[in-house]
Amino acid sequence: MKEDNKKEKLITLSYIILCFAYFAAQFGYSMSSSNISKYARSIGVGDYIMGILPGLMSFAALLSRPLAGWISDHVDRKKMMLVSLLSLAVIFVAYRFSTNTPMLLAVRIIHGVVFAVFSTVNMAFIADAVTGNGSGSYTFNTWQAEENVCHNTDLIAEVQAEFGELKNTSAEALDVSIRCWMLGQVFDEVLQEVCDEMRAAAVGE
How far apart are CA 190 and CA 196, in angstroms? Predict the structure, then answer.
C-alpha cells in the first residue's frame, strides 16, 4: 500500500490524554472501592450491605461490558467519551449526597455501568491510536480503513483476480484483503531474490 514518507508518531498528545483519562477513572474507582465501606458505616448502612458494596460496582461493570462493546462499535466514540467522563464526575459528587442505603446502592450500580462504557470506549480509542498507522499495523478503525482503500482502489481488481469475488466488501475487509495480497507479493519477491542469489553463488563456485 502507498505509505506517507513521514513516519507517524506512536506516542501522540491524543494518546497521552486518553491514557491520563483512563488513569483518572481507574484512580477514582480504586479510591471509591477502598473507602466505600467506611463511608457506608458512617451513614448507618448494615454490615451485610456494607460487605456487598465494594464488589457491587465491579459486578455491574461486568454485566454491562457487552452493552459497552456494542456502544463502542455503533455510537460516536468521542461523544460517548465526553458523556461518560462527565457522568463519572457527577457520580463522584453523588456519593457525597448518598445518605441512605438505597441511594448508595443505586449510585454504586450506576458507577459500574458508566465505568464499563467509559473504559471500553477509552480502550478502543487507545487501540486505534496504537494499532493504526502509527504502528504500521491493521487499522482497527473503519474511517482509517476507508481512507486506505480510497488510496488503493487500483489494487482491488488485482486482489479479486487472486482471491476471487470478495463476499465482504466493507472498507475494513477490503483493507485487510489488500494487505494480505501485498504480503503474498512481498514473499514472492523475497523468495525470488533469495533463489537468484543462491543460483549466482552456485555459478560463482
Answer: 10
